TrEMBL record:
Protein name: STAS domain-containing protein
PROSITE patterns per record: STAS
Residue ranges constituting the STAS domain according to the UniProt record: 27-89
Gene3D superfamilies in UniProt: STAS domain (3.30.750.24)
Superkingdom of origin organism: Bacteria
Source organism of the structure: Maioricimonas rarisocia
Length: 126
């Protein structure tokens, strides 16, 4: 993603895609950065594999309402495509505090553990 610090990690064993955001600030004043991230995130459902999309915020020190709106919109788009959004490393705790309908875990490892537990439960039920 040009001009925006992010790293994509695909984890086929979990059917997951992890997007590690490296920008320390994603607030309303960083309009260009938010818009660029929005364009990038909305393109994810069409070209990257993974039933589960995990956005890792552990390197993000600040985000604002524009970023939260972006996450809610992304979740709707992913759900329409049959995919699930999870957020990890939310040091600010605003996602959980605001009661947004987004699944949040403390770490990416915890999110992947939940995915593997869910998958093993579903496999046992078949």
């Amino acid at each position: 993603m040009t001009g925006h610090a992010a790293r994509i990690e695909t984890l086929p064993e979990f059917r997951a895609l992890v997007l590690h955001l490296n920008d320390s600030q994603l607030g309303s004043l960083q309009t260009a950065s938010i818009k660029q991230l929005e364009n990038f995130l909305h393109s994810l459902p069409s070209y990257l594999p993974g039933e589960h999309v995990i956005v890792d915020l552990s390197s993000v020190r600040y985000y604002g309402a524009a970023f939260l709106t972006l996450l809610v919109d992304l979740q709707k788009n992913l759900r329409t495509a049959g995919r699930h959004l999870m957020v990890t490393g939310d040091r600010l705790g605003l996602i959980r505090f605001s009661r947004l309908p987004i699944t949040s875990f403390e770490t990416t490892g915890a999110a992947l553990h939940a995915v593997s537990e869910r998958d093993s439960i579903l496999a046992a039920a078949v």
